[in-house]
Design brief:
With about 375 residues, the chain is α/β, with parallel strands linked by helices. The chain folds into 2 domains: about 250 residues, Zn peptidases (Aminopeptidase, 3-Layer(aba) Sandwich); about 100 residues, Alpha-Beta Plaits. It is about 30% helix and about 25% strand. The strands form 4 sheets. It has a 6-stranded mixed sheet, with helices on both faces. It is elongated, with a radius of gyration of 22 Å. The chain starts with a helix and ends in a 25-residue tail after the last helix.
Length: about 375
């Protein structure tokens, strides 16, 4: 089957498109073990007409077109959380680890880019399946931002729902606390290591204040990730989801000053990002959803994605989009509705056609993303 046939409305694209995703799901790929699925994705990309390879970080990278039009990058991730889910179709659902988070969005990007290229996209399309997004390091996206030229526009692939666009993510700061105490009897009133770890968590809550939580995009939200140890040695990990322009350095300094003993380290920190409905990528996705006679939605998320990582250094039009219900991220019954997956492909292809015709992309001002040096407060929707 040719690329033209895959995306010809007179020929059903479902068997091929679903086959692309199913092939990706058949290869387990927990973070750090993506080599096999990366090779499979490269093969699929080549079948779709891409020039494809694995880069130095292990990312699967495919390119289509070399025209003078805009360079649009579509970046998803091919790693998953651990846990095998038998790959199967049950009715209108395709099950498998990563079907939602985030092989489904990545497969949709591959199929949509191939269709847009076959339809005459005037510039360059780059699709990247990144490694280790599900880890604090985001190693794949970090490699991309350090070694790849900045595109004219970026779509990040995460499950937003086929009719919804993610315009912002909270930031995240991961903290590690370790403490060691002299051995003593349990009845000794001297604080024990486990007690100090608990105290560090309570101190973090106190520093963040009573209004903290992830109920609002504008407030920091703490999570006690883990706590372990005994009376002599203990360690705990905390994660704080941070709103735009949040002063992480001040938070860490205040927390360290209030903890009586032990070592506090920042494991990883990434800033929040947020764009607006006037962003060219948001507009293109919005128009594509509307063209399917459906009302689009826009949302911000308390989690993080590779959009955070790339927005720290790339001031380009960007948004996050992908089919799939994010409520099924990491779930034991993770699955994607086949119809939503196919709709996502259609939306992405239409959005790429719009971006290809947008003559402002190469000359538009860079300040589309809210950064630490931007105006106070979240950007308006």
């Amino acid at each position: 089957m040719t690329i033209q046939q895959i995306h010809d409305p007179k020929v059903s694209s479902q068997p091929f498109a679903v086959g692309v995703l199913r092939d990706m799901l058949e290869v387990d790929s927990p973070s750090g073990q993506e080599a096999a699925v990366g090779a499979r994705i490269v093969a699929l990309m080549r079948e779709l007409g891409f020039t494809a390879r694995l880069d130095e970080a292990g990312n699967a990278v495919g390119t289509l077109g070399r025209g003078t039009g805009p360079h649009v990058m579509l970046l998803g991730h091919m790693d998953t959380v651990p846990g095998h889910i038998p790959v199967r179709v049950e009715g209108d659902r395709l099950y498998g680890r990563g079907s939602v988070d985030a092989k489904g969005p990545l497969a949709a990007m591959m199929c949509a880019a191939a269709g847009a290229a076959a339809g005459g996209f005037p510039g360059t399309l780059t699709v990247i399946g990144a490694v280790e997004e599900e880890t604090p390091s985001s190693r794949g996206a970090m490699h991309v931002r350090a070694h790849y030229p900045r595109p004219d526009a970026l779509i990040v692939g995460e499950p937003s729902g086929w009719d919804t666009i993610v315009v912002g993510y909270k930031g995240k700061t991961d903290l590690s606390y370790r403490v060691r105490c002299e051995p003593t009897h349990p009845s000794n009133p001297t604080p024990k290591a486990t007690e100090l770890a608990c105290l560090a968590w309570r101190t973090l809550l106190d520093v963040l204040g009573p209004d903290s939580g992830n109920q609002s995009f504008a407030t920091p939200g703490p999570t006690l990730v883990s706590i372990r140890g005994d009376m002599t040695v203990a360690e705990a990990e905390f994660s704080v989801r941070t709103p735009p322009l949040y002063d992480v350095e001040r938070l860490v300094d205040r927390l360290a000053a209030k903890i009586p003993k032990g070592r506090l380290d920042v494991i990883n920190s990434v800033a929040a990002c947020r764009t607006t409905r006037s962003d060219p990528v948001v507009r293109a996705l919005t128009a594509a959803i509307t063209s399917r006679h459906h009302r689009p939605a826009w949302k911000v998320k308390a989690g993080t994605s590779d959009m955070n990582t790339l927005a720290e250094v790339w001031d380009v039009p960007m948004a996050t989009y992908g089919p799939g219900d994010s409520a099924l991220d990491h779930a034991d019954n993770e699955h994607i509705l086949i119809e939503d997956y196919l709709r996502g492909i259609g939306v992405l292809r239409r959005a790429l056609e719009t971006l290809g015709a947008d003559r402002t992309l190469r000359t538009a001002p860079d300040a589309t993303m809210e950064r630490s040096d931007g105006p106070a407060g979240p950007a308006p929707l």
